Amino acid sequence: MDRPERAAAQPARQGLQLRHACIVACIAALGPMLLYYYHEFRIVDWPLEVSGYPVGRDFVNLWSGGRAAWSGDFATLFDAQKYAIDLQRHVHPSIVENGLVWSYPPTAFWIGLPFAGLPFYPALALWLLLGFAGVLWAFRLGKMQPLPWWPLPWLVLAPGVLMVLFFAQTALVTSSLFIGGLVLARRRPWLAGALLAGFVVKPHMGLAIPVVLLALRHWRAFLATAVFTVVYVVVTVLAFGLEPWELYLGITLPKHLAMLTPWGFRLPWMFTAQYFPLLTSGLSAGVALHMHWLIAAAALGMMAWALPRLRDRDLQLAAAAAATLLISPYMQAYELALPALIALRIAAYAPAPGSDQYLTARYSVAIISLLAPVIGLLTVLLLKINPVSALMLANIALLVATTQPSRAEFDRWRHAVSRWPLQVRRRLNPS
Questions:
Q1: In a domain? residue 426
Q2: Which of 182, 236, 360, 382 is the least crowded, having the fewest Cβ atoms under 10 Å away?
Q3: Peptide bond preceding 146 in cis form (omega within 30 of 0)
Q4: Would the pTM of this model clear 0.85, i.e. be above it?
Q5: Is the residue at 424 inside a domain?
Q6: How many domains is the chain partitioned into structurally?
């Protein structure tokens, strides 16, 4: 991920194939996804949806957090009754108490703070516009070719991205930080570190980043990420004090951990980590969680092995994104915006098929990433099991399969293994 890529010129007939496959996949996914969104998000009394949440439901937390950071009234964010009254006053009088409380670390106050002085819906519109601006910036980053026109509508309408529009979640911002930080990691390590440290607002999405940076030997970016992470946390404590941290650790974090099992059964499509298919298969929570961590560790190991051997930056991004979505048991479906955006980038800047050593992997990873949300939805409806984590594992496996060790590397391994008996004998008999 260190140099801008100069993809080979694409012959007119050949260069359209992956593009067309991605467009067809996105169009095919639109029908079932829009039906789901109509069922879950249709507006019954503007601005309230059928669920009782207001339009832009998840941005409510960020916007409210910014207002609390400005006023210093943190306690309201962590009290469901007071929070509902506050939302009735500032968003819509018909909002009912539904247990909603602040759901981010206090570092996320910095996201909501710039919007705190705006009414909720102008703030929501600006939030989404800035999110898509960040996506466009990250999409073009490190590319010498002009931006193709065809991915532009799918940066909004691809299944994983469209979901973010309805939830008004943070995935557009976090995807921009992820792609931008990893693309810039070698050329501008301190800027990359400043971007990647932004995952202090959503720590479970950043767990793979240290492994990615170390696997690619981006030492300075790794150091910069660690430094900026500490700086962001310290500045947050200095600005807002310890009270929001104490409330977050004492109220919100235990609430979220307690939600994992019941919400996983209630909304099996939304929770995409392998923990929930294991849980629904009849395993106990403890066994399912241990198996979850084993799968996550295996995914991280395979990703770390493949990354330095892949010679394609966008496929490196795809492997890193797939591993990211396998780590936390709290991973939810709107985070599928990240692999979807990377899939569109893979297709938009693909080299000519005749010169592409990763042709099969590029097709497979792009289509799997784009269709993962709708495959997950339909499989949950028909079979009551969520396959998204299996799809992300398949992406990693496909990329690992394309990376064969060089002859020199194989010889080093064979030499090291052949020396093990001698080293063991020397340890047992030093004389």
A1: no
A2: 382
A3: no
A4: yes
A5: no
A6: 1
CA dihedral sign of residues 424, 428, 430, 431 = negative
Residue with tokens 């932004």: 198
Q: What one-character-per-residue DSSP string does 387-427 give?
A: -HHHHHHHHHHHHHHT-PPPHHHHHHHHHHHHHHHHHHHHH
Return averaged pLDDT per consecutive 10 residues of the chain, 431 residues in all.
Answer: 47 60 94 88 83 84 91 87 86 75 90 92 95 95 89 93 90 96 96 97 94 97 98 96 92 78 68 88 88 96 95 95 95 94 94 83 95 94 91 96 64 60 62 56
Of 140, 141, 130, whose CA–CA distance to 191 is shortest?
141
Tokens of 79: 């009290």
Q: What is the CA radius of gyration of the chain?
A: 23
Query: Tokens 């009270």 map to which residue?
Result: 243
Q: Is residue 78 part of a domain?
A: yes
Joined together, the tokens standing for residue 196 give 């990647």
Q: Which domain holds residue 80?
A: 20-404
411 occurs within a structural domain: no
Give yes or no for a contact between 389 and 277, defined as CB atoms under 8 angstroms apart: yes
In this structure, what are the phi and psi dihedrals at residue 401, rounded to the nearest 5 degrees?
-65, -25
What whole-number distance in Å separates Cα of residue 313 and Cα of residue 3? 9
